[in-house]
Amino acid sequence: MRKSILSIALFSVAISTYAQDSLMFRRIHDNIMLHGTCYEDLRVLSKNIGHRLSGSPQAEQAIVWAQKAMEAAGADKVWLQPVDVPHWVRGKEYLKLKFAGSKDYKNVTMLSLGNAVGTDGKVLEAPIIIANNFEEFEKMPAKDVKGKIVFFNYRFRQDLPHTFEGYGDAGTYRWRGPSVASAKGAAGVIIRSVSTGLDDFPHTGAMRYADTVKPIPAIAIGNTSADLLEQELRKGAVQAQIMSECKMLGAVRSFNVIGEITGSVYPDKYIVVGGHLDSWDVGDGAHDDGAGCVQSIEVLRTFKALNIKPRYTIRAVMFMNEENGLKGGLAYNDSALARKEEHILAIESDAGGFSPRGFGLAMEESKRRQIRSYRKLFLPYGVYDFEREEGGADISPMQRRGVPCAGLRPDPQRYFDLHHTANDVFEQINHRELKLGAVALTQLVYITSTYGLK
Amino acid sequence: MRKSILSIALFSVAISTYAQDSLMFRRIHDNIMLHGTCYEDLRVLSKNIGHRLSGSPQAEQAIVWAQKAMEAAGADKVWLQPVDVPHWVRGKEYLKLKFAGSKDYKNVTMLSLGNAVGTDGKVLEAPIIIANNFEEFEKMPAKDVKGKIVFFNYRFRQDLPHTFEGYGDAGTYRWRGPSVASAKGAAGVIIRSVSTGLDDFPHTGAMRYADTVKPIPAIAIGNTSADLLEQELRKGAVQAQIMSECKMLGAVRSFNVIGEITGSVYPDKYIVVGGHLDSWDVGDGAHDDGAGCVQSIEVLRTFKALNIKPRYTIRAVMFMNEENGLKGGLAYNDSALARKEEHILAIESDAGGFSPRGFGLAMEESKRRQIRSYRKLFLPYGVYDFEREEGGADISPMQRRGVPCAGLRPDPQRYFDLHHTANDVFEQINHRELKLGAVALTQLVYITSTYGLK
Fold first, then answer.
1. The sheet that has A266-276: what strands, in order across it?
2. Do A411 and B33 touch (CB under 8 A)?
3. CB contact under 8 A, A432 and B411
4. Residue A13's pLDDT is what?
5. Do B33 and A158 make contact, defined as CB atoms within 8 angstroms?
6. Alpha-carbon distance A214 to B218, whole Å?
7. Contact, B347 vs B406, CB < 8 A?
8. Which residues in chain B touch residue A161, judged by CB atoms under 8 angstroms apart?
9. Cα distance from A381 to chain B (closest Cα, Å)?
10. Measured CA distances, A228 to A148, A234, A274 (Å)
């Protein structure tokens, strides 16, 4: 008898707790959809500052902007955390192609890959050879490669429903392609952009030379140009001229920007929600990753607006240098370790400002189960998928040492049409989709700061 | 003992059936993502023909296009089903406003509501009075309304996560507003567009005059203009001039376009998948509902490409006149009744060409449970929500007499930014999102044509 009274009592508590959480989820949603500032914040970051590669003047402006935006959101404390970042600059660049049977070179839209060396402003002229993948390339005799420009014509797999898997698959041609080609004596590399787009936007992004190879120029062309080049190479020889001034300068001092709301019960235990402040040096960096920054700021604003006093300290972190070094993520982790700050959860939004569909959960199974138990609370907002085990790049140094990490998973269909291109602009952001992402982040921070993560 | 052997056997059959279905779901996905024609079909419909209001020359061209597209998709049989449709024309129109303290009229972007009367090309000049909702309007004395132009300033609720609920809520001002205003002696009506957009695109769409009221001109203005008008009305009197030539002409003969693949076991039992071929007379009608048309054609193409022989007859139906009369949906239903055609399921795609998230299921609970039992098959493609009980407008006449109906539910966040505007153009379509919708439709048709719906 006593047992069943206790059961009823516990059941009632569970019901009323669920009802309270459900109500708070709704208040968070309504507040952001009606009064959220993330869309207008992103307009300012995108249109007034624009793209902001680590070390650039715009990156410095973005740091000032982020500090002010977090103060305006009502953070208890905002500060800059020093980070030394690589400083790569693009300069002028072009690609010209001469097709078989033609006397003239034709300009083709291109972008040097990030971190790549250029031609020092000189013209690199050489014939192009095509390899559809690394396997084909491996079979080519070194003498056929030597002094040539290798065109890696690997296509982004459109038959993978989750485009981030396609990105992982094709991305290796951007990251490793230049080293693979150089190891065999190539003079330069052109890759088909790591892109789902049916258009001619070239996609830049990080590459890295293996220590054992000579750095060679490496550029990307858009899918339409890649189709044309593929077709022309079937007809006959194609000669290329590449000119590029891009180069890596010395490291410069930059900053992560951190804003926090101090926890009422556990001021020295932390929940991080963040994105990265730097972007590639084209477009506005609106989806990658202005979106994650303004959404993280929105989390702070919403806690203050709804007068939610979190038990744990909530930190919004704008990481610097995710794109070409990850120095911000590393510096944050080093600092947390040095200060012995216990992080109960780190969440990143760095997959675009699209409709949220779920969270990746990179953490031990018991914690994953706990977060999945909140699924019913998230469902009315279209957030249903808690199955993937992913965090985010900036929080990966924390993840590697066992900090529970989560990554917002927005709808992934449009991201790789825009990612790292001149077309990743504010105009590609939908206000409701962006805000709904901020809603999901705030809800996850709310529920974990209320119950902890055990 | 025999029982448990039977259990094991049945269990093995269930497993292998699931594996087969899962494989076929994947083959459908891959075929459409790699070889689907719906995106290019939609480009032709949108950019070569464009918008296509019932009775317009473009609607006639669209009928010819749809017939050819279904033949190209490999339909066993394609035919036209006669439908008499209303023929409304817009003609020239404008709205000019004179604000307090100004001597000049200023042009404001506007669209007459569909089916509305115009001013016969004359200028209707009158002061504007504002009502934020019907409740406010009811409290106004008739003498303050008489001869005035009523501005219904009701806002689309951004705090409803599912925008179609917001559409149902605000849409009543478009549908009923003119009658409500006229009943109290108003000379004309302006509505704030039924729109989530933070822009100045006016949204047209159907309205209907109650039989008891005098028809009065009725127009929509975009959210930005509505904000301006609201603000100016707070400062003082605003005078309006409306000129419009729109009018309803007599009914004209048009057609539904139907293509089918004959069932191998039940040739006289039908599964319908469709969208509507007509659109409003602005933009391209790309999301509303070119998307649903090309996706339905893709279903036929994919069955043929994968050599799937459906047990039931599959019909792709392009309905005419969803927007301002529903005559196509009614004619199809009448014909099915007259011919005693048994429909086991009717599916409509008319909520935009965005990433699919689920299906609404308007049918009895046992059938709903059967479809929900396939949820695990759909999940890898991001289709998870089978909870809503909605079909679609064109299939609603069938739904009312008990035919099981389903509606594709794409992500709803962007739809009402574009719907019924000059901005509903092909450029707003993402190729992967559109194709994924066709994948989900084909998968649902495949699974129900394999197992029936009991």
1. A77-89, A247-261, A312-319, A266-276, A342-348, A405-410, A356-362
2. no
3. no
4. 67
5. yes
6. 71
7. yes
8. 29, 380-382, 436
9. 6
10. 19, 10, 40
Among A42, A159, A429, A439, the residue to mutate for chain B (most B Cβ within 10 A): A159
Q: State the greatest distance between any 2 C-alpha atoms of chain B, in Å, as a whole number.
A: 96
B161, B196, B381 ranked by CB distance to A380: nearest = B161
HEC letters along B190-258: EEECCCCCCCCCCCCCECCCCCCCCCCCEEEECHHHHHHHHHHHHHCCCEEEEEECCEEEEEEEEEEEE
Cis preceding-peptide flag for B289 (omega within 30 of 0): yes
| Interface residues from chain B to A (CB-CB < 8 Å) | 29-30, 33-34, 39, 158-159, 161, 163, 196, 198, 355, 357, 380-382, 384-385, 411, 413-414, 417, 430-433, 436
- Considering chain B, tell me which residue range(s) the CATH 3.50.30.30 domain(s) occupy: 91-245
- A436/B414 Cβ within 8 A: no
Q: What are the φ/ψ torsions at residue B258 (nearest 5 degrees)?
A: -125, 130
Give the ipTM: 0.96
CATH 3.40.630.10 fits B27-88+250-451, yes or no: yes
- Sheet of A123-131: strand order equals A106-108, A93-98, A239-244, A123-131, A149-152, A188-192, A218-221, A110-112
Mean pLDDT of A386-396: 97
What CATH number labels B91-245? 3.50.30.30
Spatial CA neighbour of B324 closest among B293, B285, B361, B362: B285
CA distance A403 to chain B (A): 28
Inspect the interface and report whether the beta carbons of B158 and A33 lie closer than 8 Å: yes
Identify the sign of the CA torsion A419, A425, A429, A434: positive
Kindly report the average pLDDT of chain B as a whole number: 97
Give me the architecture of the A33-87+250-451 domain, per CATH: 3-Layer(aba) Sandwich (3.40)
Locus of tokens 């309504």: A30
Q: Is B444 exposed, middle or buried (0-12, 13-18, 19+ CB in 10 A)?
A: buried
pLDDT digits (tens, 9 = 90+) for A411-451: 999 999 999 999 999 999 999 999 999 999 999 999 999 99
- The C-alpha atoms of residue B288 and residue B30 are separated, in whole angstroms, by 26
pTM here is: 0.96
Residue reference for tokens 């047209």:
B204
- Residues in A closer than 8 angstroms to B411, CB to CB, are 355, 382, 411
Please list the residues that pair with B188 across neighbouring strands. Answer: B149
Q: Is the distance from CB of B362 to CB of B405 less than 8 angstroms?
A: yes
Residues of chain B with CATH 3.40.630.10: 27-88+250-451
Task: Please check whether residue A375 is in contact with residue A303, taking contact to mean a CB–CB distance below 8 angstroms.
Answer: no
pLDDT digits (tens, 9 = 90+) for A83-112: 999 999 999 999 999 999 999 999 999 999
Enumerate the β-bridge partners of residue B260: B77, B315
